[in-house]
Amino acid sequence: MGLLNIIRRMALREKLPLREIARRTGMSRNTIKKYLNSGMIEPLFATPERQSKLDPFAEKLAGWLKTEAGKSRKQRLTLKQMHADLVVLGFDGSYNRVAAFARDWRADRQRDQQTTGRGTFVPLLFRPGEAFQFDWSEDFAVLGGERTKLQVAHIKLSHSRAFLVRAYLLQTHEMLFDAHWHGFRVFGGVPERGIYDNMRTAVDRVGRGKDRQVNMRFLAMANHYLFEAAFCNPAAGWEKGQVEKNVQDARHRLWQLMPSFPDLAALNDWLEQRCVALWTEIPHAALPGSVADVWVAEQAALMPLPPAFDGFVELSKRVSPTCLISFERNRYSVPASFANRPVSLRVYPDRLVVAAEGQILCEHTRVIQRSHQLPPRTIYDWHHYLAVLQRKPGALRNGAPFAEFPPAFKQLQDLMLRKPGGDREMVDILALVLHHDEQAVLVAVEMALAEGVATKTHVLNLLHRLIDGKAIGAPDIDTPQALALRREPKANVERYDGLRARTAGGRHAS
């Protein structure tokens, strides 16, 4: 490089003849002429093409390396084994030649993955109110003192970048519907389009290109909130890159110090407040101001929030002879009048509703047990078995549903079952809740127990006086002397003879 610089200066700046340049540099005039005529400013040295003994086997060796790269580390063939296999095929070169080829192949592969292999992308721009993106992730929190695995829903506005994170125990349809409602509620409206990956709760079948067979319940939710559902190509998470990044950012913003709360509802309240607070702290990536500032401007472009979608999943169940239905390994009681009959079970995120013949039969708090090591649970409502008790009062003594009586009923039951016929009387008292307010019946039972007169008649008397508004437990009335009788009546049964006929031979008046 330095010699070429000297030659060019002598010829072009100092205008020396070739003979003088050759004398001073010791180079031949032909070489100097070649450099000056080529106009090069940097000498290039061509590497001659040399034949290698490995060339006829290069394609096969590259195929082997690609195959082995897809295997686990412990199952891959070593380069020595590959060299031995090539020798069997006729290769007579050294192991070092094979190792050098493998090094070059791995370097080219790594370079491809870091450049063109990573793909080329176009930055996206969304107008206000145009779209939101949705995704799920898995994280952990301490709920009720126990480390719990959570399914976390992320929903994010594409223009303002406002986001909401909400935690659930399962990743099912009813959880998906609930996450959308809370997201739209916090955002203050509904965008025009939702961008999703091909999750099973939204897509039943992925077709060619953009063809999707959308789940009917998911489509019903989209029709209710009036937004268009758009689905990414398979394994193309960058098409909803904003919410994908939100999943990563949430891990160090929300989950890095594992939060601890008494239950899931308290955790979700904290998550909502924390997300809204972060809007004011995070600057918008493309517009001036914070995420909260851009969200305030975007709200005008959102569709007003409609009523919440009735996001349940309906299942057909048959009630057992013991008045129970099964769901997720647990059993729930149903009114006895529907035993051995089909009913409809509506599954919500936090409750189960049983319906039949166009009416709601009962409702239970949903019990979700993630661990299969725990035994299944049975959730009873003793009211559902009152019709059976009236026919079978003996079941009151050891009936499993009646172990959950209120304390007053439990105390009265202990007293009643000690006397003959007490089970029938207890059933009659329990049946009062079918016609009167249960709290009033409980108050009447507590008063009867306090007075030490635990009988059906006394409970009925107290209950009716409560319902009629009459005073109970008033002091005894002191009768004034003015009302004293002047002539006490005498016990005389002869006056009943007046009812007999006066004439002889008459009959008795009856």
UniProtKB/TrEMBL annotation:
Pfam family, one: Mu-transpos_C_2
Domain Integrase catalytic residues, every copy: 124-299
Entry keyword set: DNA recombination, DNA-binding, Transposition
Superkingdom field: Bacteria
Domain HTH IS21-type: 3-65
Keyword flag DNA-binding: yes
InterPro entries: HTH_IS21_transposase_type (IPR017894), Integrase_cat-core (IPR001584), IstA-like_C (IPR054353)
NCBIfam families listed in its UniProt record: transpos_IS21 (NF033546)
Family to which the UniProt record says this protein belongs: Belongs to the transposase IS21/IS408/IS1162 family.
Identification of the protein by name: IS21 family transposase
Native organism: Hoeflea algicola
Lineage: Bacteria, Pseudomonadati, Pseudomonadota, Alphaproteobacteria, Hyphomicrobiales
